[in-house]
Every structure is written in structure tokens, then in C-alpha cells.
Amino acid sequence: MSDTWQGNERREHPRVPIAGELHGKIETTIDVPLVDVSLSGALLEMPSTLAANTRYRLKVVASDAAAFEAEIEVVRSYVHGFDRGTAGQPAVKYRVAIRFVELTEPQETSLQELMDRRSGVTLRAHLSS
């Protein structure tokens, strides 16, 4: 069997084979519930586990549009329970403990303001790699 395409090329710009190795990185963002939060870290609920000692960008957004953003590091990740997936199948729920990495004074102030206003607002975490 030949690896050469025998049909009509439909792409506007044809792909070119790469000699050797070329690696890419996919950036993604996931919206997850925030279980609890302190000035040093937080607990997230996730549909998948995250490896300890990995770093991500976390943005916490309140329902009234106030926000806090910081670099985080995963401390631990563990199975918390089970839920139903979108098609009704069983789905594992994970809890992920994270710590904030070197918060600046303005970041601490923003986080404290969100924590002080937690009643009456919904906090959601956006996690990106």
C-alpha cells in the first residue's frame, strides 16, 4: 500500500511532509467548579486528573465579572466520586489541590476581594495550560 495520496487535492494549501521531528503544543482552557479557596491555594473539581508539580494558569471569575488570575502548581489529584456523563454513562470526578505560585500584592488583594464577596456571587475557575 502506498502512502501517496491518489485522489484530488481539496486543500487550498497542500500539506508538506516533515523530515525528522517537529513538535507542537496545544493550549486549551477548561471551565471547572471551585470547591474552596484560600490565599495560598484552592481545591478544584475536574473531569480528569492532573499530574502533581505541573503548572497552569488559573483565572477565577465571579458572576459579577470581577476576576483574579495567577500561575498555579498542582499539589495532588485524587478520585472524589462518580457522576453521570453527557450520555448518561458513569463519569469519574476528581478533586485537584493547587497552590498559587508567588502571588504579587495586587493579586493577593484581588483574591481577597473575591473571597470577601463570595456570598451572593458564583465563582468559576478557568484552567489553561
Could you list some keywords that capture this structure?
129 residues; mainly beta; elongated
Task: Give your account of this protein's structure.
- This protein is mainly beta.
- The chain has a single domain, classed as Beta Barrel (Thrombin, subunit H).
- Helix content is 9%, strand content 45%.
- It contains 1 helix and 6 strands; from the N terminus they run βββββαβ.
- It has one helix at 105-116, and strands spanning 29-37, 41-46, 55-62, 67-84, 90-100, 123-128.
- The chain has a 6-stranded antiparallel barrel with strand order 1-2-5-4-3-6.
- β3 and β4 form a beta hairpin.
- The radius of gyration is 21 Å and the shape is elongated.
- It starts with 28 loop residues before the first strand and ends with a strand.
CATH topology: Thrombin, subunit H
Radius of gyration based on Cα positions: 21 Å
Shape: elongated
Query: How many strand segments?
Result: 6
The CATH class: Mainly Beta
Taken in chain order, the helices and strands follow as EEEEEHE
Q: Provide the structure class.
A: mainly beta
For the largest sheet, list the strands in their spatial order: 1-2-5-4-3-6
